[in-house]
Amino acid sequence: MNGKTLLTWIELSEKALTRNIASLSRLAGGRRIAVSVKSNAYGHGLAPMVGMFLNQPQVSYLTVHSLEEARLCRQYGWDRRIMVLGPIPLDSLEGVFELDLEPVVFTKEALRRLGVLSNKARTKVRTHLKLETGTHRQGIPEKALKSFASIYKRYRYLGKPYGAGMHFANIEDTTSHEYAQKQLNRFGQAVKQMTALGIKPTIRHTACSAALILFEKTRFELVRPGISVYGHWPSKETYLSYRLEGGRNDIFEPVLAWKTRVTQIKEVPADSFVGYGCTYRTTARSRLAVLPVGYADGYSRALSNLAYVLVNGRRAPVRGRVCMNLMMVDITDIPGVKLEDPVTLIGGEGSDRLSAEQMADLAGSINYEILARLSPTLERAVVPS
Ligand SMILES: *Cc1c(COP(=O)(O)O)cnc(C)c1O
């Protein structure tokens, strides 16, 4: 980013993305890859990320949560497959045909409506059944499969389900895979049941990032990673398990960096309070930098008086509460800071690096939430390196 017209922006590294996709392709061993771009591509920005995924021939699908997200992917030029993981209002299911989408189905009502619409349009539709295996979120219990089978038989253009999928409940939060194995067994059982009912799926998919990285048996014909594509480990447990099995520590590199600029510098005397609520008080004469970023931008208020930013490659601690659009950091011991100097909120500068993971630890959250909550209105810029 040259020039100083922007005060806060996100940089997206195409080089990091290419490396992450290469690592995931190796893990996937030639299987097709469906990349999750829900929640504005994990906060990275849907438009620039779709543009970058178009340059990655290994990515055959994007997975989205909603019909609206799918529509945006098409607007941004995505012409490969799209799977919709979340619910679609029954009265909006025409969108599946209009946008050429593959819906994940978990209610009979949606399947019936898709049957009516596909027969009317004389158009086939690739449906995926989401099977309940123990997460108790979206999913069809095994005993309900029979009625789904009869709906498939009733509507000619509905054909058979193209895919069968499930989602793990407890694969990134533990180093033990007992529960995951149980879910996998139930999945196998349910697929067998589908086959017996005459609705054998063409492909099976179960693997989020942690499953893909750690658990070979989950990979089947298609894998569905999200967070790792953006260069983040799903959890410390996943990272540790992978390393314990002899895996390398450099297979992922964060795609995103978050930057801002110093918009005011001030000297304050000892014993001065800083910010709302007077939660910080200087103990000595201090230099503060005001930054034009706050919780509305996605910088969590939970980071008040806890986190730090990088200025000239040095750590400047956050002083006082993070406001809606502003925050203050202490630059007393960082010489030479000038107005509009760049500041790193997430990312590397000099020899230091601030990660979404550190921020999550400080805020009592997880990297997924820190990223997904980055404001969609922040400027995004793709950088080659
Ligand atoms: C979000 C999501 C994924 C991707 O999960 P990651 O942990 O980000 O890799 C995969 N499958 C489903 C159903 C999801 O909702």
What's the gist of this structure?
This protein is of the alpha/beta class. Helix content is 30%, strand content 23%.
Please, could you describe this protein's structure?
This protein is of the alpha/beta class. The protein folds into two domains: 14-244, TIM Barrel (Alpha-Beta Barrel); 256-354, Beta Barrel (Lyase, Ornithine Decarboxylase, Chain A, domain 1). The chain has twelve helices and 20 strands. The strands form three sheets. Strands 1, 10, 11, 14, 15, 16, 17, 18, 19 and 20 form a ten-stranded mixed beta sheet that branches. Strands 2-3-4-5-6-7-8-9 form an eight-stranded parallel β-barrel. A hairpin with a 2-residue loop joins strand 15 and strand 16. Helix 6 runs parallel beside helix 7 (145-154). The protein is elongated and about 80 Å long. 43% of the residues are buried. The structure holds pyridoxal-5'-phosphate. Pyridoxal-5'-phosphate is lined by residues 36, 38, 85, 167, 208-209, 224-228, 234.
Topology overview:
Blueprint: E1 8-13, H1 14-28, E2 32-36, H2 38-42, H3 46-54, E3 59-64, H4 67-75, E4 81-84, H5 94-98, E5 102-105, H6 108-121, E6 128-130, H7 145-154, E7 163-165, H8 178-196, E8 203-207, H9 209-214, E9 222-223, H10 236-244, E10 256-261, E11 264-268, E12 273-274, E13 280-281, E14 286-291, E15 308-311, E16 314-319, E17 327-330, E18 342-349, E19 352-354, H11 356-363, H12 367-372, E20 379-383
Parallel strand pairs: 1-20, 2-3, 2-9, 3-4, 4-5, 5-6, 6-7, 7-8, 8-9
Antiparallel strand pairs: 1-10, 10-18, 11-14, 12-13, 14-17, 15-16, 15-18, 16-17, 18-19
Helix pairs in contact: 6-7
Bound molecules: pyridoxal-5'-phosphate (PLP).
